[in-house]
Amino acid sequence: PFHLTFLVYSKEQCSRDGTMGTLAVFWNQPNSVPQCLLSTLQTFEWSGYPGSVQGKDLATYILRKSRQLKIATISIGYGLDPQQKLKMEMDVKFSFRASPTCKRVFY
Q: Residue 7 belongs to what H/E stretch?
């Protein structure tokens, strides 16, 4: 069996001029929940969280389904104004999570 305990999701890219950007997120919820989310995932890191509707859906899906999750660290992507960043953080931070002890860290 597959025992995924650590998941890193990076959506940042470096452009030719050396500046950082964020790639788009394309997300479709699966028909069934992957077993690793239900039973083994403990750490989730997302670098370059874009704040899109699909990005929020993916992040909240992982939080809602990961029963063993201990920490979720999300780095918000570049180029967003402070108001947008705060709204995105609040949307994810106050969403339901399967693991009541999961610590959520945003930066």
A: strand 6-10
| CA 92 – CA 71 distance, rounded (Å) | 13
Q: How many other C-beta atoms can be found within 10 angstroms of the C-beta atom of residue 85?
A: 15
**Measured between alpha carbons, how far is 42 from 7 in angstroms, rounded to an integer?**
8
Taking only the tens place, the pLDDT of each residue in 45-86 is 988 777 777 888 888 899 999 999 999 998 877 777 788 888
Alpha carbons within 13 A on the beta-carbon side of 60 = 17
Degrees, nearest 5: CA angle 56-26-100: 30
68 and 42 Cβ atoms separated by less than 8 Å: yes
Q: How far apart are CA 27 and CA 24, in angstroms?
A: 10
DSSP state of 78: T
- Residue where the block lists tokens 């699966």: 30
